[in-house]
Amino acid sequence: MRKYLLTVLLVFSVLSFSVAQNTGKSLKMQFFCPKWGAESLSWEDFCKKVKDAGYDGVEAPFPAEETERKKAMDALKKYELLYVGMIFYNPAPQAHLKDYEQQIRTVATMKPVFINSHTGKDFTAFEQNKAVIDVADRVSKEIGIKIIHETHRGRFSYAANVTKNYLDKIPSLRLTLDISHWCAVHESYLDDQSDAIQTVLERTDHIHSRVGHPEGPQVSDPRAPEWKVALDKHLAWWDKVVALHKQKGTPLTVTTEFGPPGYLPTLPFTNQPVTSQWDVNVYMMQLLKQRYQC
Questions:
Q1: How far is the C-alpha of 173 from the C-alpha of 169, rounded, in Å?
Q2: Single pTM value for the model
Q3: Which of 48, 53, 240, 285 is most buried, judging by how many CB atoms fall within 10 Å of its CB?
């Protein structure tokens, strides 16, 4: 009888935990596909492919020519896809701020849900990089479109500890988390950067779900068993971002940003990619949708 009661109590505890887990706030997540690597496709063909795969939208730099921007906007509208704009800092002295502001205002004409910025440079002083961030903040308020800044090698946010310094000094600063870069920069899975990483995760609004490793910003294929440790490390970071957004009841967006050859390893002498960039990105979307039940 006692054994029976213990079994009943154990089952009840498991069920209670499961119910408790499922009664929390729901999380709205949207998934974006990078145009990077699909430059040979027309916007029409690309958007159809993206829609058929189950994405919610596209993340891409704005086309330089007005006619090409119209084609992009028409295709996005036709296939009911959202758009995340990308802008890039021009390091030319003085002129860079005007160019940067013009980029923001041009991409704003494509009505992005927000703008992801490659901001500043790793070799310039805090004050210079902050001047670029200040432009983004000012113009963002004027146009009513959020601008967030990507963690990226070569930018102000090239390292975890450096980025934490910016976050501590600029309370309004929000991030696109591409933590794969930092695995390469720090040559580690960042176990000794816990304080900086926690601050960064708390200030993340958008994720680039590429998987890096201590010797590079992109594993050859996250489906391969030899990269399980790398994948699990990234999933643990993303889990924390998801939990924070779920707790706050704020939406979260993800771009599955595995890159083409150059980032994607290739076979010697042939330059043939070792796997399919498209297949890997779709796999990442499906993996995260299943993991986060969205």
A1: 9
A2: 0.90
A3: 285
